[in-house]
Each structure stands twice: as C-alpha cells, then as structure tokens.
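thought: fold this chain, then report.
action: predict
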Amino acid sequence: MIEKIFVEEGIKKVRMNEYFGKELERAGYGGMDIKRTPMGTQITVNVEKPGMIIGKDGRKIKELTDDVNRRQELDNPQIDVQPIEVPDLSAPLMANRLAKLIERGWHFRRAGRSTLQRIMDKGALGCEIIMSGKLKGPRGRMEKMVDGYIKHCGEVAEEIVDRGYAIAKTKSGVIGVRVWIVKPDAKRPDAFRILAINENVKEEEEKIEEKEEEGKEKEE
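observation:
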C-alpha cells in the first residue's frame, strides 16, 4: 500500500513537470520542487525569466495556479517563482536548449560540444551530455560527451549532480538529451588540499615531541 502511494506521487510529479515544461518553455523553465505543507502544496518553479510568469499584477501566475488546481493533481497548490541565478549551470534548462538546437538543424556533435563548452566556461566542476536516438542514419545510436569531474552513482551523485532531460523532435525521429552538471559550489568528498605548515607551529611541535621523548627516557 505504501509503495503504491509513492508510485502515485512520483507519477503526479512527472506529469506536473511535463506540464510546466510546456507552459513555461518561453520563460526558460529549469525544473521544480514540490513540498507538502499543512496549508497545501508548495510548488517552487525555477525559471530564467520570472517576469513572464508573474505578469502584470500577478495575473499570469494566478491563472497558472488556477489551471494547476483544475487538474486536481495536488491539494491547494501554491506556486512560488524563483529566478535561476546562472542559467548556463541549470541542467534542465541546458537540456532544453540543446534539444532546441538539434530541432533547428544543428549537427548533434556541434550542438553538444557548444553546450558543453558553455557550461564549463561558467565554472562547472564537471558536465556529461548524452544524446541518443537517430542521430545519424536510420539506426539509433548514442553520443556521449564528458568534461571535468562527474559522479554517476551513490549518495554523492544524488547530492551534487544536477540532472536535466529533454526531447528533440526531428524529421528522422525523437532524440533524447540528458545533461548532468556538477556546479562550482558542489562539495566533493574526495577533494583535498595540501596546506603549508607555519614554521613557528612546526618548531613548537618539535619541542613537544622532544619533551615527550625526554619524559619516556626518565621513566625507563
């Protein structure tokens, strides 16, 4: 029974994400976060251009909230719009941009490398781009591009990797685009630094060691 509830909640979240992706495409949709509160459901929407969603006197966001409420997916939904500080470091947004480039006729390698370079130029620690589908010829294939530090599994990957997925609809078929980004402020558990030891501290440590050795000799 509990598993069924989790599955239903996951399906609702996917449907809402697809809905916002279509409705807020022009505003630069970059993902959402849903939290349950005693007052209802808090939906935080991340976009590149929040003004396009809020509208004059908040009319557009009210219409969007009413539309979400009519879908009866969530209880008493309240939408909060947050701007994306660095759009080029948002995985969902960059996945959508890459998909649009492919739809416009860009060669998939050129579009992928351009997107990868743009992300890394903004200071990302790492990025991985995977495009799959009928990229070249009648048979499906996969193209993978990686730069910098990236994690694929474990708790660390869940915490520091921002994930985005989009679909490009071309004449030859559908191409799936996946973008993973490790942002500049991500805390890497395997990162370490070598610090220089102050000479005074080093001398004090040596004196302490000498005293300990003298004490041992006296005990013997």
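thought: worth noting. The chain has seven helices and seven strands.
final: tokens above.
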